[in-house]
Specification:
The protein is an alpha+beta fold and 370 residues long. The chain has 11 helices and 7 strands. The N terminus is likely disordered.
Length: 370
């Protein structure tokens, strides 16, 4: 990759493609698709053409130059124009159009197609926003296709332009600088997530009922973060394995090793976050279950106490009901009623009331109702 091939050495179609419309002719989301197209020679800017057609023309006039074309949500016509000019593989172009790709690195002849997932932490919403970046890296060109707000490559371009010696190493140097920027962008995300995890732990033990939802949402973001970082580790090791084969500059080798170390560290942190969230969710479920059990126990105890009171009330009501029943029967004014004119009727009724009440009291006492 680092060996600079003359532009004439790249496969070209027999006839040049028709000149596309200016980048601003079909805006994407109200903005031009072509953010910036710049021609460099020996690490220094030569020109910044306004259209893709002008970029093609100037690059043909300077076969020893390098074109860096930055696009944001390009149209299908623009990508097909780039594919015709730079002989991009149709499968890679299709991926760049559809987006929603996992990080990967594929080689089509002397062109690399790289997919990266950038991330940024939104403090206001306390959530992670992911963007997608596709790169076509050839002998004398580099095309970046952004889907989403992240990453902002303007800082990478400024950094490279301020370091002409590094930029003079060609498109491969720009690729490594972009990789470095994407991986460095993970650091604020890791810090923000770490703060969220700490807050969630406090909320869990504080009994916040809304914490389960926050754990779930952050866990989903960590799954997405894993999908962004884990494949990147293999991609970088694949690039490192090709150092000797493609004669990669020693300075770029050092850059790539540093990026690989950072992304490995980030991937391990993300794995740790996901494991921690799983454990926190388990602890939260246990605490919720314990709280529910305590509430059920309290309800059961309250019900038991209430039941005991009902037993006492029911027992006394039954005891008091017995003499009332006897008194009511003997209080009826019928002429033909047994024992009505009996001299011992009153003492018998009183004794009967006492016996019934005493019997009921003894029965209820044995059953611990009183």
């Amino acid at each position: 990759m680092s060996d600079r091939h003359p532009r004439a050495a790249r496969r070209r179609r027999p006839e040049p493609p028709p000149a596309p419309a200016p980048a601003s002719a079909e805006p994407s989301a109200g903005e031009p698709s072509v953010i910036r197209a710049t021609l460099y020679r020996d690490g220094r800017e030569v020109s910044s053409p306004a259209t893709l057609a002008e970029t093609y023309r100037q690059l043909r006039e300077h076969p020893d130059g390098m074109a860096w074309i930055g696009l944001h949500r390009p149209t299908e016509a623009e990508l097909h124009s780039l594919a015709a000019e730079f002989d991009l593989h149709e499968l890679a172009v299709e991926d760049a159009l559809e987006a929603h790709q996992r990080p990967k690195l594929e080689r089509y002849g002397d062109t690399l197609f790289v997919v990266l997932r950038a991330a940024r932490y939104l403090d206001a919403q306390e959530e992670v926003d992911f963007g997608e970046l596709h790169l076509f890296v050839g002998p004398d060109f580099l095309i970046t296709v952004r889907h989403g707000a992240a990453p902002d490559l303007s800082a990478v371009r400024r950094r490279m332009e301020q370091n002409p010696e590094l930029l003079a190493l060609g498109p491969e140097a720009v690729l490594y600088a972009i990789l470095d920027a994407v991986v460095d962008g993970y650091a604020p995300v890791v810090a923000g997530v770490q703060n969220d995890v700490d807050e969630i732990e406090t909320e869990v033990f504080g009994g916040d009922p809304a914490v389960s939802r926050r754990i779930y949402e952050l866990s989903r973001e960590m799954v997405e973060f894993q999908r962004a970082t884990r494949p990147l580790v293999g991609m970088l090791h694949g690039l490192m394995a090709g150092f000797a084969k493609y004669g990669t500059d020693e300075e770029l080798q050092r850059y790539l090793r540093d990026v690989a170390d950072h992304v490995t560290h980030t991937s391990e942190r993300v794995d740790g976050f996901r494991q921690a969230l799983t454990e926190i969710l388990t602890v939260n479920a246990t605490l919720v279950t314990q709280q529910q059990n305590a509430e059920m126990r309290a309800l059961a105890e309250a019900g038991f106490e209430q039941n005991e009171e009902i037993k006492k009330i029911s027992s006394w009501a039954a005891i008091l009901f017995a003499p009332t029943l006897v008194g009511t029967i003997y209080g009826m004014n019928f002429d033909n009623m047994p024992e009505l004119h009996w001299a011992g009727g009153y003492p018998f009724a009183v004794v009967l009331m006492a016996v019934v009440c005493t019997s009921l009291y003894v029965v209820f006492k044995k059953k611990d109702w009183l």
